[in-house]
Design a protein that fits this description.
Layout: E1 9-16, E2 24-32, E3 35-40, E4 48-51, E5 55-64, E6 67-74, E7 79-85, H1 90-118, H2 134-137
Antiparallel strand pairs: 1-2, 1-7, 2-3, 3-4, 5-6, 6-7
Length: 139
C-alpha cells in the first residue's frame, strides 16, 4: 500500500502562468499518492500543491515535437496547463496516481457504508431505508 509521503515521481515540468503573456515556467514536480507539489525555480519560494481530492481529471493530452501538453481540471472547473519533455511521461504518471487515489477513496466509502449498515441499531430507532431500485429512480 502506498503511503501519502511516498514519492512516485520527481523531476522537471513546466506550468503555463495565469498572467497576460501566459509564459511557461519551469517547476520541479514531486508526485505522491495524494498530491502533486510544484516547486518554483527560485530558492526559498513555497511550493504549490494540487491535492488529488480537488482534481477531476487530466485532460487534453497532445504531443507536439519534443513536448507533451496536458491540462489538469480541478473540481471547481479551473484548468491548469502543463507541458513536459515527451519522454518524461508526467501526464501518464499523474493520471495513474489520480486513478489510484480515486479507487482508494471509493473503496473507503464502500467500507464505511458497509460498516454503517452492519452496525446494530438501538431499539426504537428508525432503521435506515433501503435504496430504491434503479428502475423506480429512472423515471
Amino acid at each position: 500500500m502506498k503511503t501519502p509521503g511516498e514519492v512516485l515521481r520527481e523531476g522537471e515540468l513546466e506550468k503555463r502562468s495565469d498572467s497576460l503573456f501566459q509564459l511557461w515556467k519551469k517547476k520541479r514536480g514531486v508526485l505522491t499518492p495524494d498530491r502533486l507539489r510544484l516547486f518554483p525555480a527560485g530558492p526559498g519560494a513555497r511550493p504549490k500543491e494540487l491535492r488529488f481530492h480537488s482534481i477531476l481529471k487530466v485532460d487534453c493530452v497532445e504531443r507536439t515535437g519534443k513536448y507533451v501538453y496536458f491540462t489538469i481540471v480541478t473540481t471547481d472547473r479551473k484548468e491548469i496547463d502543463f507541458r513536459c519533455a515527451g519522454e518524461s511521461c508526467w501526464n501518464a504518471a499523474i493520471t495513474l496516481a489520480l486513478i489510484d487515489f480515486q479507487n482508494r477513496r471509493a473503496l473507503q466509502d464502500v467500507r464505511l457504508r458497509q460498516e454503517r449498515a452492519a452496525a446494530p441499531h438501538p431499539p426504537g430507532a428508525p432503521t435506515p431505508a433501503a435504496p430504491e431500485p434503479r428502475s423506480a429512480r429512472a423515471s
